Structures are given as C-alpha cells and as structure tokens.
Amino acid sequence: MQLSKVAVVSSGMTVRERLTAQSRGVLAIQMADISVGSDLDVLGMARIPSPHPRYLVTRGDVLLRSRGQTTIAWAVPDRSPEPAVAVMPLFIIRPSTDSYDPDFLAWWLNQPDAQTHLRRAAQGQTIQMVAKATLESVPLQLPPLAQQRLIADAARLAASEAQLMHRLADCQHTLRQTQLTSAALAGQSHPKAGRI
Question: DSSP for 115-169?
Fold first, then answer.
C-alpha cells in the first residue's frame, strides 16, 4: 500500500518574508522547529498574523521536512500549546481514512526503508528536496490499529530511554573529569608534585 491511499499530502504555507518571533499571531512551524521525539519550543517560534485556515495543523496530521539531509516526520501532538500553521518546505500529511495512527505513521516514515525511498528520488544537487509525488508513493505496512499504537508507544519509550542513557553518559563523563581535575589539583600541593 502507498501513503496516497490513506492520506492527503499538501504543502505548507508559502511565506515570502523572513519570519521572526513576535508576540501576536499564530505559531508558524518551520523545518528547524521539529525533530524526532521532541515537542515544540513555543517561546522561540515565529508567528504569522493571519494565516489561511487550510494550513492550520491538528492532531492526526503528520509534518515532514522535505528539504535537507534528513527528511524527518513528526506527528502533531494531542495537545498543541496553541493553534499553529505549517510553513513551506514542510509537507502536511492529513489522514483520509482512520486506518492509521499518526504517531505510527511518523515512526514508519523515519525508518530506514522509507528514508531510503525518499532519498533515492530526492532532487537537487546541493540541497536535496523530496517531491510530493515521491512522498505519496512511500510504501506502507499498516498492522491493526491497536498494534500500531503499541509500536508507536514502544518507539517513544525507546527514544526516551536513549535520551536518558545519553544524559547519564554525559553526567558520568563530567563526574570523572571533575574527579580527575580534583586529583590533579590535590597533587599540586605536594612539594615534589610535577617533578620527574
């Protein structure tokens, strides 16, 4: 099955001027705002005064970065902090059926097989770009909905575990460096320290 059988793919809103953080308007989700396993950092995001409603994203939508080295897919969370629109070059993947879970779809699109499919057909010499037709033709395997949700939950837990392990490794490294620095400084107080 292809993505086009279960979803409608459309481009994000075209913006002609540079977007900046401001106090008014609707949040504008750009490529730099999304990454796998993280929420939106609302405080640093740009805003658009009066966007067209068709670009507003809601739960069920999946956004995909269509340019650059990585084509990250990100599912719009259950509780968005406030209304937001997707901006080009993001694609909005909107369900046309209720046969898939958006978290599962985002996970599937981030897997090596789907990423290989997208990269092989990417266009451009310096900046790779995924065409809408390429995204629509991504092959999908859709197990039953309950199993999709279990897989998405397990993937979320695995990503959280990886982040925690990375933080633990950083803390252990910092602790060891602090201990070694303390040992080096303690050695300086000895009258023969540093002599061979």
Answer: HHHHHHT-B-SSS-B--HHHHHT-B-----HHHHHHHHHHHHHHHHHHHHHHHHH
Closest CA to 12 of 90, 126, 66: 90
Q: Give CA–CA dist 178/164, Å, rounded.
A: 21
- Contact in structure between 131 and 121 (CB atoms under 8 Å): yes
Token readout for 90 is 């993001």
* Angle at which helices 102-109 and 112-120 cross, to 10°: 60
User: Euclidean distance between the first and final Cα of the chain, in Å?
Assistant: 72
pTM: 0.80
Read off the tokens for 141.
């395997």
| β-sheet bridge partners, residue 129 | 67, 123
Q: Helix 102-109 to helix 145-188 angle, to the nearest 10 degrees?
A: 60
- Tell me the pLDDT tens digit for each residue of 117-171: 888 877 766 677 888 999 999 999 999 999 999 999 998 888 888 888 989 999 9
CA distance 15 to 24: 17
pLDDT tens, residue by residue, 80-112? 778 889 999 899 999 998 899 999 999 999 999
Instruction: For residue 29, give the nearest of 10, 48, 16 by alpha carbon.
Output: 48
**DSSP symbol at 81:** S
